[in-house]
Amino acid sequence: MNRQEEFYDVVVCGGGLAGLSAAVAAAREGVKTCLIQDRPVLGGNSSSEIRVTPHGAAACHAYARETGIISEVLIEERARNHDESMENGGMNSVWDMVLYDLALTTPNLTLHLNTMITGLLMAEPAGAPADQEREDVNREPNLCLGFYHRPACNISDRISAVHCWVSHAEIELAVHGGIFVDATGDGIVADLAGCEWRMGAESKEEFGEPHGLEEASKEVMGSSIHFRTRDMGSPCPYRAPDWAVSHRDPKYFECHKRSLQDPRGGYWWFEISAPWNTIRDNETIRHELTRHVLGVWDWMKNHDPALKDSLANYALDWIGQVPGKRESRRIMGRYLLTENDVVAKRSFDDEVAFGGWYVDLHKPGGLLLDGSVGTKSGEAAPPTHCGPYGIPLRMLMAKDVGNLLLAGRNISATHVALGTVRVMGTTALTGQAAGVAAAVAITKKRCLEQAAVVDIREIQQKLLREGCFLLSARNEDPLDLALTARVKASSERSFSQADPDPTTEKTTRDFLKHRRFQYLTVSESRLHSLSIYLTNTSDSPEDLQVQLVDVEHIWDYRLDESELTLLTKGTLRVPGNFQGWVEWECSVAVQAKSYVRLDVFPNSALIWHSALKTTSGFPAAFEFAPGQMRNWPNPTTSAFRISPAQRPWLAEEVVTGITRPYQRTNHWCSDDLRDKPEWLELKWDSAIRLSRCELTFPGNLLLEHHKYPPFWRDPQTPADYEIQTWHQDTWKTQIQIEGNYQRQRVHQFDAAIQTDRLRVVISKTNGDPSAAITEIRCYA
Q: Labelling 491: which of 310, 507, 694, 774 has CA 20 to 30 A away?
């Protein structure tokens, strides 16, 4: 037996998107980091072993896609991958290699794959006789209550090392660290360390959550496997094995939201939990899911009257054999997030991440249920769209062990709150936050509890600099010289009209069956008129109620009239059998450089046409359920005109400290650059020392990952550009880039220079007619 020991500052356990983000974030901050993963590939549920597409806030909110490390790798995957990314079951080995490449090329990071954690070495608490390995005792949950409370440990408890077994290598590995991050999903490290955890659903009485159960339950959301099929071009017979589940009743699919629409596979409802435990019975769940997959495919292929002929040439190409878990242990931290927090979009001083997926609670049992698998827990409460909302650092700090952080789906949340924070876009953000917090604590030689209070502003500023977005913080980095510069540009694009989509027909989604909204960013202090492009399908004239309200940002979804700041309201008369622009002479004062919202009330005889394309920073939304709003489907702008013409993309937007449309557009756009390059310039009152320029570009924020095609490069992102500095009455090129598609780029000059001016000159984009920049940072 080969026994080895290794020593690190930060040890991250679990190589899903949360763990990878944590490890890369810590290593990039300069601390020695180790990432331990028990599988041969990284990515967890998104890996080619399971193939769940990363979801996040962009599913419900325009411009809310997660940025930072998760954005970096998703952009890279789409640029490299030849295959489309279907919503479920679409991730392939190109994705695995993108993640592997990131881990291998990150300085200060050591990766151990196929390495399973088997135990811990706990450091000596005050007054303890000696270091000793914690015994694995009392690990069964209280199944009557549905969750498990372990007696609280002394916070002086600390992990000294994790013991590991390297599969197929006969290596016992002890990995020592200063701070540990549990991103294992099941909370393996926290459990071995004696942390309190919960597993199951809390009662409504405990926290007053709308989706809480009348009585606490031991049951959790289920695990899933996916499958993929392939059209082989000729008939492919299929016979299910005898041990497959027989699915011959069409009502099983017709009555339970078990859609078979996509013949390629990837059905999320291949899900099982109760009566099995998602940790202890993982192998049983895998086998049962496989039996169901083969039986359902047999129904589709050989018996379904609507499908069997069209699937004659299809063959099963892949079946996942690693269940993707939604829920198991939730480790108790310094703060327990509840549904009430996310619905209220509660603000936290120690915010380090954000979420925005809806409260997505799958009924335990899944495939075994008689009822609909799509029905949410809490029968009386409708599904809740929430956020974007903040996630506090305290949620990521285990309350019972002083040097343990949490990341991923095992963070400190109730069962209901887990329904929104568990998706991979959000968990990746918690991982990056944990990695940065751990690195700051190590660098400052502080315990996590101190760093979380004393250094929280520094942690937030580091996250922003690394590309993350925080609802309650903006770039205030005192070292960023760009914040002290004056900004000008070669041109600033003006805007007056979002053209209608000429292909819109009377059968489309655009009928005004719901209240709809268009967010407008304004640069002038007064609006004279607004026009919207309508079709009246009725023979008689129709009245349409409209109003203009002041909003705080593009995710201001307030609908209650008592909470709104009404600017003006009106009624539009639309002639019978009409199609065209209908003008509203609103003539109202507005606050320049902010958003207002045009509210259009329902009239089912009318169509408000979607725009031909999305106008950057001008999202639309609709009331999909009483009192609830979400983003309008792509393109996310509706057809409208605004007078006077606005200048929403000013040069000064690159130094607002926010890197996406939010309270204003927060990015610069030029006029058409097809005839000549466009530039944006920073000028200081006196010469500064400059050696580093960090750029953030628009793009890759609007839609979820699976909605982008193969080899995608966002049109708004500059492809070819130069960074120039002013030297002896001429511009000197310091950096020249061709073929860029990433949203964030960091450029280090060969040597520090003295200058009072810097220009970014953009000569080519990936398709958009305007040059655009979201943020410039400059450092000495």
A: 694
What lies within 8 Å, CB to CB, of 301 at 6+ separation is: 238, 307, 308, 311, 314
Could you give the count of Cα atoms lying within 13 Å of 259 in the half-sphere of its Cβ? Answer: 7
**pLDDT over 60 (residue 378):** no
Of the chain, the percentage scoring pLDDT greater than 70 comes to 93
pLDDT at position 125 is 56
d(CA 82, CA 214): 49
3-state secondary structure of 261: coil
Of 11, 13, 21, nearest in space to 428 by CA: 21
Alpha-carbon distances of 541 from 126, 410, 514, 530, rounded to whole Å? 81, 57, 19, 20
Q: pLDDT per residue over 237-271, tens digit each?
A: 999 999 999 999 888 887 657 888 888 888 989 99
Number of H helices, E strands in the chain: 12, 40
Q: What gap in Å lies between CA 295 and CA 265, rounded to an integer?
A: 13
CA distance to 136, 502, 576, per residue, from 12 (Å): 21, 52, 65
pTM, two decimal places: 0.94
Eight-class DSSP state of 302: I
- At which residue do the structure tokens 């922003």 appear? 464
Q: Mention every residue, 6+ apart, whose C-beta is less than 8 A from residue 172.
A: 1, 2, 3, 4, 163, 164, 165, 166
The token pair that represents 297 in the structure block: 């495919």
Beta strands in 29-83 (DSSP E): 33-36
Contact 37, 115 (CB under 8 A): yes
Average pLDDT for the chain: 92
Q: Which helix (H) or strand (E) holds 425?
A: helix 424-444
